[in-house]
Write a structure and sequence with these properties.
Elements: H1 2-42, H2 63-69, H3 72-84, H4 116-119, H5 122-130, H6 145-152, H7 162-172, H8 174-184
């Protein structure tokens, strides 16, 4: 009888300790995510000017840039979600889910590797020839046919931000704008960087920030 009681107590103690260990692990994961969020927030935007593209897009939220420069955890989670999800029906304003599969990019003005469509971009080439900072920010011809044609091509939602972004870059300065965009394109809960068409965070599942352009309802 004493032996059974001892076993029962031991079993109860084991369950209690296991539950406690799980709670600690979850707490540590949450703390780690919070610490990552704070570290990323405090990173200087200096040296990231190349993420402010010639057309005004923020390259840091581009799938091709994230595929090359994202954290290992982020890239792994994005790939898992991409290939475990069922194909989505086409939605107005949203490109196909596979539109940038296999593309890697260092950012529009990085001087490094560019995705093919960026390498051949007429806007980027024009700005490089005519503007001191290689951006359309201060161009007297803005908005020209090159940028309006791209905005209207596919009517993708992220392209609707080109002209407003160029105005903000002009008003804020490129470094402040980069910092602003870095914060805007992070998960509001855990700080994981998000891409243009992420409806939710790939790490914690939190919905995209309301500071971003809204996606059409499914």
């Amino acid at each position: 009888m004493y032996s059974d009681k001892k076993k029962s107590i031991t079993r109860r103690k084991f369950v209690k300790e296991a539950a406690g260990a799980c709670f600690v692990c979850l707490s540590l994961d949450f703390l780690a995510a919070s610490e990552d969020k704070e570290k990323d927030k405090n990173k200087d935007s200096k040296g990231k000017e190349h993420l402010a593209a010639a057309c005004g897009t923020y390259c840091g939220a581009c799938p091709a840039y994230i595929a090359k420069h994202g954290k290992k955890e982020q890239i792994k989670l994005r790939l898992q979600k991409r290939f475990s999800s069922e194909p989505k029906k086409p939605q107005k304003g949203i490109p196909p889910s596979n539109w940038m599969d296999g593309l890697l990019c260092d950012g529009c003005l990085s001087g490094g590797k560019l995705a093919a469509h960026c390498q051949n971009c007429a806007i980027r080439k024009c700005a490089a020839n005519k503007q001191k900072d290689s951006r359309c920010t201060d161009c007297e011809e803005l908005p020209c046919y090159r940028i309006t044609n791209l905005i209207n091509m596919g009517h993708y939602l992220h392209r609707q931000e080109y002209l407003p972004n160029l105005k903000k870059i002009r008003e804020m300065g490129v470094q402040k704008w980069i910092k602003y965009e870095e914060e805007r394109w992070r998960c509001p809960q855990c700080g994981m960087p998000m891409s243009w068409y992420d409806a939710e965070c790939v790490r914690c599942g939190a919905p995209r920030s309301k500071r971003l352009f809204p996606l059409p309802e499914k």
